[in-house]
Amino acid sequence: MMTPPSGPRTALPAPAAPLAAAWGPDSSQPALLRLLAGAAGRLSVPAAGSKAWHGAELNLPAPVVRQAQEERGTPWPQPLVSHYARYFRDGNRTAYEGLVAARQQRLTRAVAMALASDPGRQGGDGDEAEAWLDEVVDGAFLLCEQSSWSWAAHDDVFRRTCCVVPDLATPYLDLGAGEVAAQLAWLDHVLGRQLDDRAPGLRRRIRQEVTGRVIRPFLDRLDWHWLGLDGDVHNWNPWIHSNLIAAALLLVDDPATQAQAVARCIEGLDRFLASLPADGAIDEGFAYWWNGAGRALEGLALLEQATGGVLNGGLPVVRELVAFPHRMHIGGAWFFNVADGPARAAAALPWDMLHRWAVRLDDPEAAAHAAAMATGAPDPAAGLGRVLHTMLERPDLASDAPPPLVAATYLPSVQIMVARETGGTVEGLLLAAKGGHNGEHHNHRDVGSVVVAVDGVPLLVDAGQPTYTAQTFGPDRYGIRAMQSNWHSVPAPFGLEQGTGRDFAAAVLNAPAPERPQLELALGAAYGFEPRAWIRAAELHRAPGRITIADRWDLPAPAAGETADVDITFLTAGTLILGPEGTATVRPDGIPAVDAADATPRGAALRWDPAAVVVLVDEWQLDDPLLADAWGPRLTRLRFRTRAATAPSPAFRAAGAFTLTVEATP
């Protein structure tokens, strides 16, 4: 995904605020040497056989139990070198990563079943417990034998050696390696005594592998790009550091090495937290919040528990992070998506973790939202650490009460506005709009884009994340349609694509107020013009129940060979039906509704001045499984084209205005 710096560094910079400022010398290696003594016994997830496990209901979903029972005793998923090599040959990531995920999820199910079968629990069965322990032993040993824990897409082996097989001598420490290390750490923590009885020597092997593949590379090298030493801090940082904290606490037996690893993790997390804006916004959006900010919260919780509360994670920046997910909520599983984020929330999100933080920080809206979204059922796709926490969570966490559905949010750091017609309900219109710039993490060229939902279902949309391939993070990234401005709801002056980088940005002319949710942006710089060459004002008019997206422009002459046409594009989901001149309807056909019982979902009625534009329609047949899962078989691009009244000349300027009005259908 990214190339690490070419040379090793000899020293870490001084820790950044806010952790260093809040914790002071308590986060130093000498202090941690003292504070971490007995840390494993203070974690909220205890070892098997404790009262917590014997008294918990566990609430394993029937499909999880059934799948575990069906796969026990069958061959394990086997990622092969041919799967690994495919990334380097043809760019396919899923052939290898899918099998790796299947192997790890099976192991997570086996650990959960071993805990549920513990003979000390009511209904436990000793023979069953031993059978599940054998399953755990086999899965853990397979991970120890797996040549690489890194995902092929991240490994630098091809760049360094032109080889397409992992290099055992130089393991690559990436997201995949961190996930395996944490999974082995958690299973060792909860089932360690049983593993000693069932497979003596396995725990020693686990420690050897985690030390060699993860702990030593982390401590010995300072050129990992995700450390953020070059100032670019992204979601890899907290994701890997939080997993390393678990591995260090639970698998590193030498106190000095443990303290060194945890101290360095704190420094890394501090760089991530210091990079966040005061409003808690995540430029990668809601979906990546869970594997960025959410991972940071998990790491902070582990540090607090391990040190008996000395390293207190309840900092001001954390409060704002906790609020971000519900601020992006559209309705049901739909969220305002930007960058490489899908529009629908994944099923395996640890809402219980967010709920714990929200309750602790006394944020009732965030707590109500997390409770409304939680299922209370652990999902193996979330990872073993998250599953163990969910298994011990109160079974009544999931709530039938509605989420808060706040009336309006504006996050100035990312220039994002989300406003609904009536707070507290999905009924009616919702408008989401963003400015920002095209150098954001996981960036799509989406400066100035809008999303419009009716009754909680997006109909003017952002396509979101397609399946990742080698192209996704390579030089041809913007050859992917889902990432182009031409397939976002933004203008295309002279048919131009937006540029890439921080300079291709929006400027806020008027920020929204709670009583008037309007975001007015100067978009010209996104296309290489002066900022006010294109101005867009997106506004929700609550009283009449109407949204207007008003564009006006004053452009210089197009470059030689460019068209003088000006397009304004809107991407629609469902079924687009052109009506009488100047009207269209977007119906949510085939799109998951917020309420499955709603047999007659409303659509969006569009209006415009037919004399001002020519209307063009393009269908995008979705053959990508991630996009089709969200939107069904197609997305439709609706383009409004204005033509120059005179032929271009050196003195020519294209000036004009266009307004699209959106209302809910009756």
Uncertain stretches of 5 or more adjacent residues: 1-16
Terminal-residue CA separation: 47 Å
Q: What is the gyration radius calculated from CA atoms?
A: 26 Å
Helix content: 25-40%
Tell me the major beta sheet: 8 strands, antiparallel
Instruction: Figure out the total of helices.
Output: 19
- Order of strands, widest sheet: 11-12-13-14-21-18-17-16
Number of strands: 21
Mean pLDDT comes to 92
- Derived from helix and strand composition plus strand pairing, the structural class reads alpha+beta
> What is the approximate shape?
globular
- How much of the polypeptide forms β-strand, as a percent range? 15-25%
User: How would you name the oligomeric state of the polypeptide chains in this document?
Assistant: single chain
Please, could you describe this protein's structure?
By secondary structure, the chain is an alpha+beta fold. The chain has 19 helices and 21 strands. A hairpin with an 8-residue loop joins strand 4 (416-420) and strand 5 (429-434). Helix 7 (126-145) packs parallel to helix 10 (202-220). The longest helix has 24 residues, at 175-198. It is globular and about 80 Å long.
List keywords for this structure.
666 residues, alpha+beta, eight-stranded antiparallel sheet, five-stranded antiparallel sheet, 19 helices, globular, disordered N terminus
